[in-house]
Amino acid sequence: MKKRIVSANDLTQYDDLADQWWDPRGPFTALSWIAAKRGEMIPPAAGPGATLVDVACGGGLLHPHIQGKGYRHIGVDQSRRSLEVARAHGVDETVHTDVTKLPFDDGSVDVVVAGQCLEHFDEPYAVVAECCRILRPGGFLLLDTIADTLLARVLIVTLTENLPLPGMALKGTHDHRLFIDRIRLALVAEHHGVPLRMYGLWPRATDLIPWFFGRKGTVRMATTKSTNVMFQAAGTKLAVPGARGRA
Hints:
By secondary structure, the chain is of the alpha/beta class. Helices cover 26% and strands 22% of the residues. The chain contains seven helices and eight strands, in the order ααββαββαβααβαββ. It has an eight-stranded mixed sheet with strand order 3-2-1-4-5-8-6-7. Strand 2, helix 3 and strand 3 form a beta-alpha-beta unit. Helix 4 runs parallel beside helix 6 (182-191).
């Protein structure tokens, strides 16, 4: 039977769960699938010395999917034990900090990612503003999160957290009141110089069903037009603040 997180969206629980980040059928399994898709979207570094800041990096699930792309991978998180796991799995540098106050200079980072974390913060749009602030002009921003919709609440909270199946989030992982308003997200990012394009994420049924029966080791994520449940938002920081352009 699945365990329960003590209180909904209690971020301190990630210290207690840190030894499960890389469990192939544990509560963070779906995050590893999304991390793989995230890695596909990140372009190779433009030159030597490029940095990638991984906001709320957890146990470093992104790292194997950006190896060879030329970045110094810097993981940022509020869980000390998760950062220990991230270092053990190859993340080059880790920073324990409040993610609403990232300790990087303005325009100093080549790529910023914030994966499956905005929906866990009381001030998610402040986190987005910080991600944009530290990104250099021409740098790439990649976010993935959960939409503030009734469908997302039903699928992510009511069903996923209550199904007695492997790989599902523990009951109490999410608080639907923190799910992300896509319009507000786009407005905040554009205000800070990063126009976004958005697309949905969904596990491939041809992988997911066999995975539940132990016949596949992982599940690939597909992109969809609908952003009503899980979605990614990607954009390039404009050289001129307030200018408009394609993400």
